Amino acid sequence: MKNLPKDAYRKNQASPLKEVFEELLQTYRLKERFSEKTLIHHWGDLMGKTVLDRTTHLYIKEKVLYARISSGPLKKELMLHKSKVLCLIDERFGEGIIHDIVFL
Which domain holds residue 86? Predict the structure, then answer.
């Protein structure tokens, strides 16, 4: 037991659950994937009911968010305001989760 790294020992003090969860995500390198899934899950909260109802498919691949929109005029409007949508995502979920959005 003498040769174990310092981080391998169990902590004696209680820690807040949020802190422990963040540490777990970092340890297993899941933070980025968790943030992507959280973004997809909260797409409706971020964009509103109208956009959510017309979004048929949503996924992230290589830091690009792909959103299939069933309404042509809404897709055009979202394309025009793509930078604003990216800013909303960065504000809510942190910078670097996605770098671009493609509306299909």
Answer: 31-103
Q: Which two tokens stand for residue 60?
A: 């992230």
- Does the pLDDT at position 44 exceed 70? yes
pLDDT over 70 percentage in the chain:
88
Strands, E assignment, the chain: 55-61, 64-69, 100-103
pTM of the model: 0.77
Q: What is the DSSP string of 34-54?
A: HHHHHHHHTHHHHH-HHHHHT
The CA distance from 23 to 88, in Å, is 26
Two structure tokens written together for 98:
């996605």
Residue 92 belongs to a domain: yes
CA distance 95 to 92: 9
Number of domains composing the chain = 1
Retrieve residue 66's tokens. Answer: 């792909």
> Which phi-psi region, left, alpha or beta, contains residue 14 (left: φ > 0; alpha: ψ -120 to 50)?
beta
